[in-house]
């Protein structure tokens, strides 16, 4: 499932707010059929998102109900409740959703995680297919390998490579064709129609854990895990909200300067942040080993961890200001930034990437701003 993890938005945080313009700030968003947009990345969000036009560039969409019936000349990455892709995507498609239906033309690979997933008849998959979900149906040819993990899985068309399945119930209909090996893990043998064609080997592996919905209350387990994760992230976000508001009201000018640095020099901030995150601990450990520098290293370690925590505040403030474009107070802008990142962190597998890039950008921008502030103060002989 590494492909599913990698779908999450490797640079999701950066693209989310540094796209040349932010789309769909209303409840509903629609790109009309006669419209062509050349923008990379192109970000759309709302309660409903309908992309019927042409986008030249990668598309990132999030919402309750998402429909992509136009053409995306690039990658498509979607997170939503009900997702339908019946247009054309020239590169990869990566989707996380509750109900997912793909019936369009996909030039390369498809990676999907969701509840009910239907790779419908009439779709075209030019590469590999990786799917994880509850009820999964594959009713169209796939050019490459197919990897599936789910509760109930049905395969009804041609697989151009190998077929690997781990599920409670597995069924290959009369239309199923597997060009290479068919390897599966299940509680019992798969239901394979006599007319189904498997060119390679068929390998059955007994599941170490029974995956059948009747034997495993996956819904209850998933709900409990989800509630625990949401509660923890909510508490963390509320703490950051309070600390950030205190910092913003005590030092509004400095917070604004750090946000401005992030806006003007994002790549410099990223580079500085990367070096500080990974090299500072090493340097401080070496300093501790000198014995004489041990007390200094302890103080610097404390400051380092404080900086790591506060780095998020500057990114959240910058993100909030980016969204509202100065139309509201700084406090509300910061609160909006915290809310957005809280919602993004709820997307499975995204939290790690989000935290990493928030840390790198924020710490880097903070360091650049402190250095600039120090130079200005020295020039004015203020310190």
From TrEMBL:
InterPro entries: DUF8173 (IPR058486). Residues 235-366 form the DUF8173 domain. It comes from the Bacteria. The chain crosses the membrane at residues 234-252, 273-292, 298-320, 332-350, 356-374. Pfam families: DUF8173 (PF26514). Residues 1-24 form the signal peptide. The keyword Signal applies. Keywords: Membrane, Signal, Transmembrane, Transmembrane helix. This is DUF8173 domain-containing protein.
């Amino acid at each position: 499932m590494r492909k599913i993890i990698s779908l999450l938005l490797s640079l999701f945080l950066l693209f989310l707010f540094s796209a040349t313009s932010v789309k769909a700030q209303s409840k509903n968003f629609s790109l009309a059929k006669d419209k062509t947009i050349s923008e990379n990345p192109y970000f759309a969000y709302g309660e409903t998102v309908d992309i019927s036009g042409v986008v030249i560039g990668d598309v990132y969409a999030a919402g309750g109900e998402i429909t992509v019936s136009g053409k995306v000349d690039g990658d498509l990455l979607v997170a939503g409740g009900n997702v339908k892709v019946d247009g054309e995507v020239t590169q990869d498609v990566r989707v996380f959703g509750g109900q997912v239906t793909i019936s369009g033309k996909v030039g390369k690979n498809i990676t999907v995680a969701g509840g009910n997933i239907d790779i419908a008849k009439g779709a075209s998959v030019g590469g590999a297919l990786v799917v994880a979900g509850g009820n999964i149906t594959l009713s169209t040819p796939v050019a490459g390998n197919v990897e599936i993990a789910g509760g109930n899985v049905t395969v009804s068309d041609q697989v151009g490579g190998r077929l690997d399945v781990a599920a409670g119930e597995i069924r290959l209909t009369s239309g199923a064709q597997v060009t290479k090996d068919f390897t599966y893990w299940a509680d019992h043998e798969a239901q394979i129609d006599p007319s189904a064609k498997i060119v390679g080997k068929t390998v059955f592996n007994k599941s170490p854990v029974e995956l059948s919905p009747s034997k495993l209350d996956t819904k209850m387990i998933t709900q409990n895990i989800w509630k625990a994760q949401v509660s923890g992230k909510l508490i963390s976000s509320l703490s950051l909200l309070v600390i950030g508001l205190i910092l913003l009201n005590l030092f509004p000018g400095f917070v604004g300067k750090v946000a401005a640095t992030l806006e003007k020099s994002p790549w410099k901030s990223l580079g500085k942040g990367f070096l500080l995150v990974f090299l500072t601990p090493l340097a401080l450990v070496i300093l501790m080993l000198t014995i004489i520098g041990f007390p200094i290293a302890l103080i610097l370690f404390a400051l380092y961890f404080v900086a790591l925590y506060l780095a998020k505040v500057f990114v959240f403030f910058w993100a909030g200001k980016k969204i509202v474009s100065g139309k509201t107070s700084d406090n509300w802008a910061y609160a909006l930034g915290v809310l957005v990142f809280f919602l993004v962190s709820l997307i499975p597998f995204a939290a790690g990437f989000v935290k990493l890039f928030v840390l790198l950008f924020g710490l880097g921008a903070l360091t650049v701003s402190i250095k600039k502030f120090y130079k200005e103060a020295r020039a004015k002989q203020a310190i």
